[in-house]
Amino acid sequence: MNHSISNLSSSSSLWFNYTCTIFSFIFFTFTFSFSLFSLSIFILRLKLWCKCSTCQSFLTSSWSKDFNNLCDWYTHLLSKSPTGTIHIHILGNIITADPKNVEHILKTKFENYPKGKPFSILLGDLLGKGIFNVDGDSWKFQRKMASLELGSVSIRMHAFNIVKSEIQTRLIPLLNSVSGQVLDLQDVFRRFSFDNICKFSFGFDPCCLELSLPMPASEFAEAFDLASKLSAQRGLSSSSLIWKVKRVLNLGSEKELKSAIKMVDQFAQRMINQRRELGFSDKSDLLSRFMATMIDDDKYLRDIVVSFLLAGRDTVASGLTSFFWLLSQNPKVEFAIRDELEKVTAGFSPSDDQDFVMFDQMREMHYLHAALCESLRLFPPVQLDSKFAQHDDVLPDFTFVRKGTRVTYHPYAMGRMERVWGSDCLEFKPERWLKNGRYVPENPYKYPVFQAGLRVCLGKEMALVEMKCVVLAIIKRFNIQVADPNQAPKFAPGLTATVRGGLPVLVQRREA
Ligand code: HEM
User: Fold this and answer.
1) Is there a single domain that holds both residue 37 and residue 140?
2) For 258-268, what is each residue's pLDDT tens digit?
3) How far apart are CA 183 and CA 502, in angstroms?
4) CA of residue 315 to ligand 1 center, whole Å
């Protein structure tokens, strides 16, 4: 009897499993086919909908015959537009290079132009509810907390010491060891900035810039890179349906993304656990500081810190890479920086902190500051940034914005607009930032390289100090010759400007 009951129950559970599998299969096939069908309709509608030459050029990628990069094509379109604003209809995207519009979006009508759901969904799996990815109260709370932390002198000194140590113990020994050889400077800067931002955010050293230049740089760096790259690639799909379906079915790039994010999560959790075990009140890293402010939700802590990793890593590496590319074409600027360095450090004995320029002396280097601002003007690490209109609106140049439209300001194009920067806009001229030898800041809406207004970058000062330290340490000791200086950069798609193929340079130690 028992035997027959157990037989019966095992055959009915078999039957149940079998039925479930069939239903799941039918469900997924149906969902998948329906999605593909919707997608085809969507693409067909796009093709039929707008016949304007810009949209057709976008759809067929014919712009790539004349331009190296999409941002160069947008720059061309924006400079031809009488208002400095264009509309890519099929993307529902208004793009502007007009400083008045930028001020309107980032300050005057800030509440009407949040980052919006379409953006936060793309990066949501990686960034969660971190500052970079949220609007409203959650953003306000983190902004207040992060501004307090990053504004403090102690954390700025802490960041400066991290950078100084990475330069002295890793960057200079590495460049010394490859003197007379070619190496990829972009790769060096990416490793350098990842070590720095990890030490700053987690108090953890991933050792990416070891002399051996380990490959992969570190497992965590690799997972983090892959996760940011694949999250950004979601935005390139012709319809969000494609990646959403792939995510549900755990296929291809979405499967890879999921496992990369899992590694980032596990790493962050290990860091949080370590702090709980060993204590955090005496530590200066960002994670410890946030833990000390009574945040005890592990997921929230993870999200906050991961946003900082994304914000501070590739941006600095990108800014440094284009700076050295521009310097190789403008040796006069390099001489002028060396000259300024000599003047500022005159009477400075080598024993003073191992001849490292001090924080306060760097403040006196107006030309260096101007040169960096100028380089970021021509090559902003964040080439464009989008918001989504909450309600219908009209921009100061009378462009009508329908509710839900994506509105993009384009720092890369703005840096190359004659009407914004004058007829010499394409020249690398640090002098444009100087008056009587002193640096004079520009209107931030004309130069939104660090964004501007209420959501202006929180790491701007830190980033500039980090970049100055690197520039001074390198040009004081080495000659850097870009292998092919006439080759204009081609950018890889991503959240931050990264040069495809890197920046190969010949490194040569300078005579003492
Ligand atoms: C050259 C280097 C950098 C550039 C060009 C840059 C640029 C930007 C831009 C354009 C934004 C606005 C992004 C958006 O809202 O979509 C931003 C936001 C932000 N940046 Fe930076 N950044 C740099 C370095 C850093 C560093 C080193 C840190 C931190 C250590 C940092 C922290 C942040 C944070 C926390 C935000 C979010 C601010 C908010 O949403 O309220 N940035 N940055």
Assistant:
1) no
2) 999 999 999 99
3) 9
4) 8
